[in-house]
Amino acid sequence: MINEKPQRIVVIGAGIVGASFAYHLASKGAQVTVVEAQGIASGVTGTSFAWINTSCTGPDPIAALRGGAIAAYRRLETQVPGLTVRWHGALSYGTPDGRVSPASILIDRSRIAQLEPHLRQPPEQALYEPAQGALDAVAATHALLAVAQALGATVRTHTPVLGFTVQDARVTGVKTAAGVIEADVIVLAAGTGTAALAAQLGASLPIHASPAIFMRYKAPPGLVRGIISSHAMEVRQNADGTLLAAEDYVDEAPENQPAAMARRAASAIRNELEGADAIALELACVGLRPMPFDGVPIIGYLPQVEGAYVCAMHPGVVLAAIVGQLASEEIVDGQPASALEACRPARFQA
């Protein structure tokens, strides 16, 4: 843990997690530089379903962290112009994973039909979670970085990290093609690239790239009011009418590639929703989520070298706001967050 207040912090990664770090750190007066190998939100952030929920299957070692996710986004909406969450709630029914949250309400068919009038055959019952919502993760990332820049942060896109400078077992800078960016603290928030960066600092983090299918359709506005997660489909709609859908990745067989999955998903959506006949596919791709081996986020200082803070987690969009807030307090104020204790990188040391 760093005892003295750091002045220069380099955040590696300009997805929504890195953007949340940048905003919260800059808000605390740190001199922040964001370094991104590609463009803003060019990684998994751009292919996220971005459902802000607190649901979990089985025991949850990060229940306290997950429980603060919605409130953290509510705060950000009041602080960051352009960051807007659509708090229209979520309906779940007929799904095999058993996701549930303390806020779940069991509702009947008539109430379901009121909430989602375009469902052709509303189920007898569904779980309704009115506090949940969704956001445009790409727009939110840009909004967070814009405010961070207004607070003095620098954002360098298309700037791959080539390595680090280390002196007396402490990180002192980040190497790029344009030179070394000096730093008191670095934050590794590069999604699936985080493990390779940590390895350059002597840390072995078991993070794998977990694939999921992300689909986007052009659709009539107002087709879906909230979020629907059922046996047939997982869909939501943006304010501009764009219909988003997500499916689990199955395998590399031709019939399970994104385009084929998107055709089947479109057929299911048309069967389930009145007025969906005209939906047209705009994008179908695989998103790679950074998934720690044990399923628990990896957040905190690396024990191998001083001054290196890491953040790798799924669900990244859900936890970005609360983790950015708590981690900035740890880094700048030196205040350990009890909600992050289960997430420490040291748990992977032999």
What does the model show?
It is a single chain. Helix 1 runs parallel beside helix 8. The model has no long low-confidence stretch (mean pLDDT 94). The strands form four sheets. Strands 6-7-5-15-16-17-14-18 form an eight-stranded mixed beta sheet. A six-stranded mixed beta sheet has the order 9-2-1-13-20-19. A three-stranded antiparallel beta sheet has the order 3-8-4. The protein has two domains: 8-50 and 137-206 and 293-348, FAD/NAD(P)-binding domain (3-Layer(bba) Sandwich); 90-130 and 209-291, D-Amino Acid Oxidase, Chain A, domain 2. It is built from eight helices and 20 strands. By secondary structure, the protein is an alpha+beta fold.
- Percent strand equals 25-35%
- Walk across the major sheet and give the strand order: 6-7-5-15-16-17-14-18
Q: Count of helical segments?
A: 8
Instruction: Fill in the CATH topology of the largest domain.
Output: FAD/NAD(P)-binding domain
Q: What's the short version?
A:
The chain has 350 residues and is α+β, with helices and mostly antiparallel strands. 25% of the residues lie in helices and 29% in strands.
Q: Topology of this structure?
A:
Blueprint: E1 8-12, H1 16-27, E2 31-35, E3 51-52, H2 63-67, H3 69-79, E4 85-86, E5 90-93, E6 105-108, H4 109-115, E7 125-129, E8 133-135, H5 137-150, E9 154-156, E10 163-167, E11 170-176, E12 179-182, E13 185-188, H6 194-199, E14 207-218, E15 227-230, E16 234-237, E17 243-248, H7 258-272, E18 280-292, E19 298-301, E20 308-312, H8 316-333
Helix pairs in contact: 1-5, 1-8, 3-8
